[in-house]
Amino acid sequence: MIVFVRIVSVLLPSFWLAATVFGQVQAPNPDNRAADPGRTWQYSLSLAGYYVPSDQSYASPTFTADSERIHLECRYNYEALKTASIWVGYNLSFGKNVTLDLTPMVGGVFGRTTGVAPGYDMTLSYKGLELFGQGEYVIDTNEVSNRYFYAWNELSYAPVKWFRFGGVAQRTRVYHTGLDVQRGFLVGLMVKKVDFTTYVFNPGVTDTTLVFSIGYTF
Question: Which CATH superfamily is domain 2-217 in?
């Protein structure tokens, strides 16, 4: 609980600072809902397959549901293998030319790892340039030594709407390599509502880990 309070005390001033820099908070307006004003929910389903040469390979599905301010999410094999998490968050949006979409969240984790996790999703965009960040602090209620901060960050550029490329970094304990923070590059394609992205971690440094991701928005 003390750790959770400390994290919240750090995040809240950051949210206030973002609101000051980017201006008045705006309601999120996904493309699907803009085209259909009567629609209140937007959903996404994604599956990431991890090929890990030095450890166990696995698949990690994620499902999200958003309605204006409310964000709901379910993850599996994300915090740990054979572990699921359920999240609830609050969507915030700032700015016009430079936009910041921010979703502070809290989740419950259960399975091989059991506990709670405050976290966030963040996307900073300017034209074709996008910085995406996702993080959480996993508070294992059974084993203090298992508590850790997980992070995934992408910086990508889309010269056209259907193609993007860039760099990626992650910190995870689902599998282990010789690096605490793994780095690499990404290449992504968008075909209508389907997103295909390939991530290559640690090329030329240690065992190269590949992640193949497919996502569908509806």
Answer: monomeric porin ompg (2.40.160.40)
